[in-house]
């Protein structure tokens, strides 16, 4: 609806502009340029709406007023909308106008062709004589016809006949009937506007004057005089609406004078014609500046997802398990266990001997002194203090084997397995999260093999009830896979 209103206003303004400019343009650049000016309102009617995308307005946060209750009352819609009634009247009148105009044209064409006699053919144009036609007229956009009054060919001298025929043929060559049809939707849009009807009459005068100029181009003064007499003879002819007659009722006496005066104008020079074409081209290029514009809101970006709630802090634990036994028994369940906190580390000492506290402290000191350096993991997720399990096994021969489970790579010699493999992340009953990665390091002495160290370490992990059951199961799975890899490597 807004497009129709914008088009009505803008084309009305352009019609007024052309009415002001047409005479000066005809005087300086010729009648053809004045006729071409009518392209501006016609093309503006066909100009589509331009859509401009604008960023979506931010969504306002709701405002709550404490202690107040705000009630919004919506007024009931009126039972009668005057704007709707005017719109219906406007568009209904436009449809009726088009129906009458097109119906009248096709009725006249039907009457002209009924009982008509074919006189000759000029290219694709049929020249006929008809009792229904009082003045020479051109019909048809596709099936092109020049209709002459009955007996016109015999009654007219050859010069008048050729000039009249040339005029109507020039209407077909200049596509003037097609222009008349194209202007009807614009005129229908303005059916109630006197300015538009004045524009239609001016268009027809400019159309005839431009056609006259094309017919007389290069002809002598005698032909011009004969042509002027011919126009005057048919000046009182009927209004054939969409057809292009030699003269029609819309042409008043003042308009006939304008048209005859145009015949006396000097033909514009090549430079002036070029300047006139540039003027029309500039007007056409400026038309988009008058286009109707609609604003489409750009889709608002989706709000960023809310950050996940931080999980429970990772359980920080450094645990060192030292196993020392003289017997060759693999049953670690019978070992005596002593838990010692030393230098901020939890040390679990397991032995099959009866040792005093001082002896145990000495063993712990010796064991820790012989352990490889294991720096803390870096900060951030998986940072310092994540679940780390270090197992150091002491055999009867005094040989030490180390198994390290950690969240970070332990840089040490004799380590196997490359980067640590993440086992899993889980939470215990207290909501504490455990995440563990495993890396296997081993010191080999004498005849003890890496496989022996892994198997013994596996036994220690299996019997250590201090490790959560789910993590213990997954660590054992990793150790089993390491044993399998060792077996395949021979």
From TrEMBL:
Matching entries from InterPro entries are given as:
Beta-lactam_resp_regulator (IPR052173), Peptidase_M56 (IPR008756)
Source domain of life:
Bacteria
* A Pfam family assignment: Peptidase_M56
Going by the UniProt record, its keywords in alphabetical order are: Membrane, Transmembrane, Transmembrane helix
Positions of transmembrane segments: 83-108, 278-297
* Segments for region (Disordered): 410-432
Give the Peptidase M56 domain ranges.
5-260
This protein's name: M56 family metallopeptidase
Q: Please tell me the species this chain comes from.
A: Novosphingobium aquiterrae
Which taxonomic lineage does the organism of this UniProt entry have?
Answer: Bacteria, Pseudomonadati, Pseudomonadota, Alphaproteobacteria, Sphingomonadales
């Amino acid at each position: 609806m807004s497009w129709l209103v914008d088009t009505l206003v803008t084309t009305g303004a352009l019609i007024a502009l052309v009415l002001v400019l047409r005479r000066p343009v005809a005087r300086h650049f010729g009648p053809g340029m004045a006729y071409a000016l009518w392209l501006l309102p016609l093309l503006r009617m066909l100009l589509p709406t331009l859509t401009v995308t604008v960023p979506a307005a931010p969504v306002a946060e709701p405002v709550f007023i404490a202690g107040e209750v705000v009630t919004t009352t919506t007024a009931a819609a009126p039972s009668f909308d005057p704007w709707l009634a005017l719109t219906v009247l406007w568009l209904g009148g436009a449809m009726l106008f088009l129906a009458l105009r097109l119906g009248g044209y096709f009725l006249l064409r039907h009457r002209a062709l009924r009982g008509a006699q074919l006189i000759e053919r000029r290219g694709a144009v049929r020249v006929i004589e008809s009792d229904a036609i009082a003045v020479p007229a051109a019909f048809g956009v596709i099936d092109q016809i020049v209709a002459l009054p009955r007996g016109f060919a015999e009654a007219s001298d050859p010069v008048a006949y050729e000039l009249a025929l040339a005029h109507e043929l020039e209407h077909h060559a200049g596509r003037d009937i097609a222009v008349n049809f194209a202007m009807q939707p614009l005129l229908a849009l303005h059916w109630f506007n006197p300015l538009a009807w004045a524009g239609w009459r001016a268009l027809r005068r400019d159309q005839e004057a431009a056609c006259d100029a094309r017919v007389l181009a290069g002809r002598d003064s005698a032909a011009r005089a004969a042509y002027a007499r011919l126009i005057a003879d048919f000046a009182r002819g009927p209004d054939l609406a969409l057809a292009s007659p030699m003269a029609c009722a819309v042409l008043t006496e003042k308009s006939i004078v304008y048209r005859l005066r145009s015949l006396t104008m000097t033909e514009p020079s090549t430079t002036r014609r070029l300047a006139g074409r540039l003027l029309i081209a500039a007007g056409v290029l400026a038309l988009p500046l008058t286009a109707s514009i609609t604003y489409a809101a750009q889709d608002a970006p989706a709000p960023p997802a809310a950050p996940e709630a931080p999980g429970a802090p990772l359980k920080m634990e450094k645990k060192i398990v030292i196993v020392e036994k003289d017997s060759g028994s693999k049953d670690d369940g019978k070992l005596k266990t002593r838990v010692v906190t030393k230098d901020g580390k939890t040390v679990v000492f397991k032995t099959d001997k009866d040792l005093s506290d001082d002896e145990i402290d000495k063993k712990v000191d010796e064991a820790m002194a012989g352990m490889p350096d294991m720096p803390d993991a870096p900060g951030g997720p998986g940072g310092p203090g994540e679940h780390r399990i270090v197992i150091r096994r002491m055999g009867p021969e005094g040989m030490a084997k180390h198994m390290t489970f950690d969240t970070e790579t332990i840089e040490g010699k004799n380590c196997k397995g490359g980067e640590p493999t993440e086992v899993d992340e889980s939470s215990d009953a207290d909501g504490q999260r455990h995440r563990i990665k495993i890396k296997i390091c081993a010191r080999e002495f004498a005849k003890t093999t890496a496989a022996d160290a892994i198997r013994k370490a596996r036994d220690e992990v299996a019997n250590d009830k201090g490790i959560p059951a789910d993590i213990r199961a997954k660590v054992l799975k990793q150790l089993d896979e390491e044993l399998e890899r060792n077996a395949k490597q021979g």
